[in-house]
Design goal:
The strands form 2 sheets. The protein has a 3-stranded antiparallel β-sheet with strand order 1-3-2. The protein has a two-stranded antiparallel sheet with strand order 4-5. The chain starts with a helix and ends in an 8-residue tail after the last helix. It is built from 17 helices and 5 strands. The protein has about 350 residues and is mainly alpha-helical. Helix content is about 70%, strand content about 5%.
Length: about 350
């Protein structure tokens, strides 16, 4: 299992390297001068030249790519030359110096995602640190709701298979899968946040941290989490319900279930103690994919509800062409997908001991 885990991590690193390469060249082929994007409309020729030199924009594209890899790499080189990009970035990195020579130093550091173009030189890592926890809270709430309700509804469908309750659950889950998230978000915000506001006391828009009426402090507004979490969880609930129903029914037809019945065990005991664990494999796959997508930023849901998360930040960055934030967010998203996929593969082995880790 250790060998398998190391191999998966190696594949993940190669995948991440490919993502870094693609997004770097993709965004640098877009029209526009990054230095002008940083300075805005009031730049002078001297300011433009200084920014290009500081951030390496005056170098060939291949050299800029190496600079970007150096920024992202945990092990980075810092030159002693005053005209080198890595010299100017030495104060940004921090970290631990592990080698110092005549030409520069080698440092062990956290990845540097560069500075925002539109937020007065604010680091991209700081922007992500401020918004990602809100998205994580929203994603965990939505996926928890999806797992609890989806598994429960799937079990109920199998228990009452082909009955009116089973058909009703299938109809509702089909509708849930077919309705787009942005439409559900608009509908829920209007109906529960506006039409029924006097009964629900829910707001159409709002984030987790709100400013008080006097503008002197902030407070946690947990009620603002309800509507976006429900909307974000609608489609995962429908998917988990269908997968749990089909997988559990398939398990209930297996030979080991017939053997358990022959031993005199009740259907409920067989379903709960024997079939459930094996039926969860496809559910784990679906949940991992949805959870990674949610952490990546539920763009429409966050934007419609005004939830200050990574998805809303990506939309704002796209509107202002804040390339470092977009590139940094994509890298964070890719990393989360890779980590979650590795964890899910390891969970498979715990759920189903028949799975062998190896070539």
């Amino acid at each position: 299992m250790l060998r398998y885990t190391i191999k998966k991590i190696g594949y993940g690193v190669l995948t991440l390297f490919g993502v870094v390469t693609v997004i770097f060249y993709l965004f640098h082929f877009l029209p526009g001068d990054p230095a002008r994007m940083m300075l805005g409309q009031n730049e002078s020729a001297e300011q433009l030249a200084a920014v290009k030199k500081k951030y390496g924009f005056d170098q060939p594209l291949g050299q800029q790519y190496l600079f970007y890899l150096n920024d992202l790499s945990p092990l980075s080189w810092h030159s002693n030359k005053g005209n080198d990009y890595t010299f100017y970035q030495a104060d940004q990195y921090g970290g631990v110096v592990i080698y110092r020579g005549d030409r520069g130093l080698l440092a062990l550091k956290a990845p540097y995602l560069r500075d925002s173009f539109q937020k007065s030189g604010k680091k991209v890592s700081e922007v992500i640190q401020e918004t990602l926890p809100n998205t994580a809270i929203l994603a965990v709430s939505a996926i928890s709701l999806a797992v609890c309700l989806g598994v429960l509804l799937g079990v109920i469908s199998v228990w009452f298979k082909d009955g009116w309750l089973d058909r009703l659950i299938q109809l509702v889950s089909t509708i849930g899968m077919s309705v787009p998230s942005f439409f559900s978000a608009i509908l829920f915000a209007w109906f529960f946040g506006y039409v029924l506001h006097q009964y629900t006391h829910l707001n159409m828009t709002g984030s987790l941290i709100e400013v008080d009426d006097y503008g002197e402090g902030t407070y946690l507004a947990w009620k603002n989490l309800i509507l976006p979490a429900v909307v974000l969880g609608i489609r995962p609930i429908a998917v988990v319900t269908q997968l749990m129903r089909n997988s559990l029914w398939e398990q209930m037809q297996q030979d080991y279930i017939r053997t358990a019945r022959a031993k005199g065990l009740t259907d409920w005991s067989i379903m709960w103690r024997h079939a459930m664990k094996n039926a969860l494999n496809p559910v784990v796959t679906a949940v991992s994919g949805w959870f990674a997508s949610m952490l990546a930023g539920a763009v429409f849901v966050e934007y419609i509800f005004g939830w200050n998360g990574l998805g809303k930040e990506i939309v704002d960055a796209l509107n202002t062409l804040d390339l470092p934030i977009i590139m940094g967010a994509v890298l964070v998203i890719a990393t989360m997908f890779i980590v979650i996929n590795i964890v899910v593969d390891l969970i498979y082995g715990w759920l189903d001991p028949r799975i062998a880790y190896g070539d």
